[in-house]
Amino acid sequence: MEKILATVAGATMGLLSVIFLLMGIIGSMIFPEQVQVIGLAFVIIGAAFVLMTLVFLRMASKYRRQTRQITLNGRKVEAAILEVKEVTEITINGKHPFVVVCEAEGRTFESEYFYEDVHRFDDKKTIDVYLNDDTNEVLVDIEV
Q1: Does residue 130 surpass a pLDDT of 80?
Q2: Which of 71, 86, 112 delimits the end of a domain?
Q3: What is the pLDDT of residues 74-96, one digit of tens each?
Q4: How many domains does the chain have?
Q5: What is the DSSP letter of 112?
Q6: What are the CA-CA distances from residue 88 to residues 15, 61, 85 (Å)?
Q7: Claim to verify: residue 65 and residue 82 sit in the same structural domain
């Protein structure tokens, strides 16, 4: 969930940075000298959005790298699906996310939130889970 949010936030901040930078630059060129302070303010805000874009995209890259690491270095086990539950505290576009609760090797794991069709788990009894024993990282593979 975090990687999706970081990617969306980064893309949004990137778009806002372009808009504010263009407004500041064009505004400074069009308007007389008295109003150039407003153009400078837009450029500064645009630069702040550029910095936020870089932060969010770095976060998204970090999450993708962690996922790739655990799928490469972790061991894959089959986990029995115990429950697929709806998270009613969160609503995005009128939909609630879901969490897959599963068990393997005597331990219980929960997936991150996902928004796809929950009924794809109706006939499934197991799901792949990647475990990295060195770092205690767990990845529930909800991308079935």
Answers
A1: yes
A2: 71
A3: 888 888 888 888 888 888 778 88
A4: 2
A5: P
A6: 31, 29, 9
A7: no
